[in-house]
Amino acid sequence: MAVGNGNGKPPVLVILQLTGGNDYFNTVIPYNDEHYFDSRPSLQIPQDRVLKLDDDLGFHPAMGPMKDIYASGDMAVIHGIGYANSPRSHFRSMDIWHTCEPDKVGTEGWLGRALRELDPNGANPVTGVNIGQALPRALVAPGVSVASVADLSTYGLLTSIEQQQQRDQMLTRFANMYGPAVGTGQVMEYLGQTGLDALKGADILKVAPDKYESSVEYGATPIAKKLRDIAQIHTADVGTRVFYSDHGSFDTHAAQATTHAKLWQDVSEAVQDFWDDLREHDAHENVVMFMFSEFGRRVRDNGSGTDHGAAGVGFAIGPRVRGGMYSEYPETRPEALEQGDLVPNQDYRGVYTTILEDHLQLEAAPIVNGSFEAPKYLRTNGH
Known about the structure:
The protein is of the alpha/beta class. It has helices at residues 34-39, 64-72, 90-99, 110-118, 152-155, 160-182, 184-193, 202-205, 208-211, 222-235, 256-280, 348-359, 365-368, and strands at residues 12-18, 28-30, 51-52, 57-59, 75-82, 128-131, 147-149, 242-247, 287-292, 312-317, 324-326, 346-347. The strands form 2 sheets. Strands 1, 5, 6, 7, 8, 9, 10, 11 and 12 form a 9-stranded mixed β-sheet that branches. Strands 2-4-3 form a 3-stranded antiparallel β-sheet.
């Protein structure tokens, strides 16, 4: 069972999903690598614009706030994340990340399993909270209720009829997303059997905005709004242990130069504001944020964008993070690529293992379906 960390409060996890396949090669740039410049005739970032992290790697120029967090020592950059035989399909790849089942269609989400361990009797209906329109499969497991809120600011103002409509829309969206993969009957049976209520815990959550004050001014972007909602719920002390949110789409097949820059500007600024907000409330010590995308993108650009790839990059942020680089940047030589992609060298389930064991204090193997090399990017129990 989980124990307190940092300031004596139970550990809290915030997941930020970069939906659509973030371009790893233009996010963490090997700015001295001739293969990078050869492969990106249209999308290369000039050396003098790269936000240099060390002698070899730097961030995209839109990631200024992320560089500041890295420089403070509160960020781990985890290279080459993925799994073997990437299908390069958004739906299948995201499903693999969500269920820890790369070889078959999984029925339980890894965080759903974690929530079942954290709150085995389902005593708190807001132990897990999703901020967004659809319920992520990562949070789904039989017997686990998750509160899902599209917009916290208007949530308390909804009538019971509107709440019911929003609930039905979320459940319908969930059934439409997962029905084709695991069978509509199985999905509907799950929804009925567990009595999943996407709006359960609403009465608890709607007090959060009233209790919240902050001098931090978040930007007017969707991801800023989501992270502000998470900050409001977290600082209201309602017992939420796992938060989930997403931003996208990072599916930049065309017009990538402007789209990717805007995406990272919005994410970077929102993440910085979120941590400033938590620090202002002295509510940051027990929080770890993890950011991932379902895959990276093709090494060679297609003229105005990039196509689906394999290896990606993850970021862990927070005062309990051992800042720095983890795993290895995949080889960029043309002959080292797989179908034109960077080859993963860090199994994503090992990255999850670190979160589960060193932060949430849970046994990881039953949750991620096995034992995997786990990079030690977190301090355990504050050490």
